[in-house]
Amino acid sequence: MKLEGTNSLPAPVETVWKTINDPEALRRCTPGLKELKEVGPDTYQATLQIGVAAVKGTYAGTLAITDKRAPAHYKISLDGSGGAGFMKGEGIVDLEPHGDGTLLKWAGDIQIGGLIAGVGQRMLGGIGKMLIGQFFKCLEDYVGGGT
Amino acid sequence: MKPAVFEYFSPQTVEEAVALLGEYGDDAKVLAGGQSLVPLMNMRLARPPVVVDINRIESLAYIRDEDGGLRFGALTRQRAAERSPLVAARCPLLRDALRLVGHVQIRNRGTIGGSIAHADPAAELTAVLAALDGEVTARGPQGDRVISARELFVTYLTTSLEPRELLVEARFPAPPQGAGWSWMEVARRHGDFALAGVGTVLVLRRGTIADARIGLIGVGPTPVRAAEAERGLIGQPPSEALWEAAAEAVRDAVSPDGDIHASAEYRRHVAGVLAQRALRESLSRVQEAA
Amino acid sequence: MSPHVGARITRNEDPALLRGRGLFVDDVRLPGMVCAAVLRSPHAHARINRIDARRALAVPGVLAVFTHADLGELGGPLPKLIPHPALTYHKTQEPLASTVARFVGEPVAFVVAEDRYLAEDALDLIAVDYTPLPVVESLQEAAVPGAPLVHADMPNNVCAHYTQRVGDVERSFARAAHRFRERLVIDRGTSSPLETRGVVASWQPQTRQLDIWDSTQAPIPIRNGLAAMFHLPQAGVRVVAPDVGGGFGCKVMMFYPEEILVPMAALRLARPVKWIEDRREHFVATNQEREQIHEAEIAVDDDGLILGVRTTFLYDAGAYCPYGIIVPIVAGTTLPGPYRIAHYHCEFRAIFTNKTPVSPYRGAGRPHGVFVMERLLDRAAGELGLDRAEIRRRNLIQPNEFPYDVGVIYQDNAPLQYDSGDYPRCLSRAADMIDYARWGARQQANRAAGRYLGLGIACYVEGTGIGPYEGSRVNVEPSGKVFVATGVGTQGQGHMTVFAQIVADVLGVDPRDVSVRTGDTTAFGWGTGTFASRAGVVAGTAVSLAAEAVREKTRLVAASLLEARPDEIELEHGRAFVRGAPARSLLLGEVAAASNPLRFTMPRDWEGPGLEATRYFAPPRGTFSNGVHACIVEVDPETGMLRVRRYVVVHDCGRVLNPLILDGQIHGGVAQGLGGAVWEKLVYDAQGQPLATTFMDYLLPTSEEVPPLEVGHEETPTPLNPLGVKGAGEAGVIPVAAAVAQAVEDALQPFGVHITEMPLSPNRVRQLVAEARRSL
Fold first, then answer.
1. What does pTM read for this prediction?
2. Cα separation of C306 and C169, whole Å?
3. Any B CB within 8 A of A52 CB
């Protein structure tokens, strides 16, 4: 599933860049994140509990930020597996100066496999998009509210 | 397909059930008809540590004609509602929509409250509740709370009910005497989840449309009220051109997802087709209000 | 007395089944029995780095967790069924994947616990470290050189490349007035029997007896294979296929991994072990079929006479090919159908993909052959302005042309030779039944009313009744009741009834007094199984031959008791009597008792006691059924929704043993055919993840979707067996897609829609209408 979006933020690029690299932002915004433990530079072990209503799955895996080109570009990858299946998500974030502020452009792709994919295909697409959208909306809010 | 271990309670009264939900909160799931919950549990996609089975709370099963509409206890079986003379007389839209909920076997167990609380975006009852501006009563440790259809449906399978609340009643305001109605949906087989579904109500007065309701399922994360399309109908005399315009407005109002059965574009297109046909059929059922 | 064969009697098996007194594998309950569950790969292609089962083993009630490392000599690749010279890479899976999993659902570990709940709890606790590998899911893409490899030791994903040729296709095309080409795509489907798979195994160390209950279509090969694998004498292994709730092809394998793992666990744990496949597992773990892509061409003259046909196609084998290339061979040899085709070229490549392995599903390639041929004819008819029934009529093989040599080699490795049939008669009868002559006018009237209805008519020939052989033992007991045993299994075909009818006619008894036992290796130990529409023909003939031998013995014994000559003895109403002197008679049971003396001497010409005989039938080649289906469908161009309004079947399977049972076979086949035309599609995403693993998404037609069927029987008996019967098991499904495609195209003719794929969906139909509208 692919999704993309663009948002305008009232802070300069360098500020936005600093904020979106802050592990606190990841902790706050990654949907269902229960635990985030740094295991290396820009690499974290993650435990996520993602679900909608009664359908919940716990996924253990890795979150990594790669392809960093400060202060304007990075790729964030998240993959996890659990009883209900496994998931693999990637988001590319680009920052552009826009007047006094910043244009945050993001493009995300999420793949879900396993039991949940074979049973829930009817809603997985929509729910996946919703979760990706939530992540980037939260990042925007965090940037807007933070320094 | 065997569920994971769970603790099971079978309260006899609403108070007991609410107390259990109060104690276990997020850990508890309410079991009513079980037509959605039990398969999810058997497939281990849902593993609620606690199941609160409300099927023995007889006081929760009733159908009453009061306050300008129908009041359903949450545990009312869909089949009972479908066959109720009260429903046929006061709200035939609901009866027609119920006929297309799954199959008879499912409706024998499935409940009015359960379907609404489950909030499947393809559940017929949710669009009817939305179209008629219905509401539900939720009972929690702090007492009762009334939630309108507009506030109730949040996203896929998610309502604004709190984990400690039990949906106890659903109210469907009845359209006025002489109103026309129609429920239409497209499903790949009889009883399947609708690819798109529309419920409409039309009230005419002196040759023009006095009230119009259009509720849709299968076209987004929640049921959709096509409010713009409705507004475009008010005050107008009915005509094929009007229905066509309404169909376009309906298409603009929906953002469906695609899946392996039908693309988003198909659902959007069909939503309009069904709206047009449903409005046409609603008109054929109208008896002019004075 | 009217014969029992051909009578429309109700089934012997139903009184028990309808009262819930059948015995299916899950009904088998043994003292101390434990339950198994399978851990399956969630990845379509992955290296298995490590399996850690410690947490699972720590759960009380979990008895064992097996991985490949525990299998020892049982860990090798499963046997290759049906090798073929063109099958260069006959890859089979291991019972548990050792280093690589190649499809979602491939077994990786096997858990045994006190009950299935605990076994599934244990599955949750097994940690497997996978490294995902590149996935190739699409048949089209897997066939391209350079595609990711399903098997790393192969140069590409092609496991077989096979060509059959008749005449000189190049020349016939070069000289043809008209050539038309089509690209035709059929998508994946699965058998979906009502009963999923299951195995129960019990090992008795004291008697060294291994008993297995297996929902299989071929218990005897399973018995023989397991005996060999576990170094047991065949006499020490019993395999029973009890009541089986449908097979349709997917239950004939040797082996599925579970068919080895369950007995292995029973032997090692010395406790009976049960494994029952749940429905979601069935969607990944049981073989699937149907995926083929054809590039086909037809050459015709100005009158629509077929000069040549060729097809080059890709066949999706899935991740392994245990069953070889039977399905594409059947597709290619069914394609010529009832038509005279002097020049034919059929070439296929079988391709591995990272999906569930493929083996036959009812039809086994015949639906594909028919779909291609009929679509080509429809195309030619449309282009030449010929009537669709007329172009078929012109090309049909005539009744006086039998035996007709098609020129290719069939799936039984014998030359394809049609033995009998009356193709023109079936076509005209089907046309009459659907009222073809007045269709044009009715269609116009409907269109004027804004309704889009279409008619489709399709012909086929079906190869049935192939060898190598089947056998049967018939025995009359002193009670007068007759007992029949045969090596085939039964999954709903009504064998307990039709074989009883055959015996009843030969021995002059009531079919209700004949008990038939199938699928138990202890009751009968020689046979190959129920598949390819052969049981009625091959086992039925063996039953008939055995019954005739018993009749001769009965006459011999009765004659000596009644002081007459054997040729004077008649058998009727359960008695043996002297012709012309009916008072001189004995009950059949009395003859049976007399045939087994306890004392004194026994006549030498009896050649042993009892009224019992065992006979085998090995047909030299298959026998060919045929038929014509016609249907009327209504299409809503705005929503793409399709409704089948009428469905007509004319069917010739030679002599009909029981029209009621035959109708049932046809009804079921048509329902499955409609499923494959309109509803049933196994969808995988680009990562090889199956997206339709429940009946929410794999849509089986219900009684609301399938109209009442109108069935006409024709009977041209075959000369190839004494009963004159041909097979009927698969017929219902074979031409359905072809007929529906033609009907939908006919309905949407004002829009110019062209149907080249199966199954359709409302989404797809609407899309085709919209595209056609745009290009008008």
1. 0.95
2. 11
3. yes
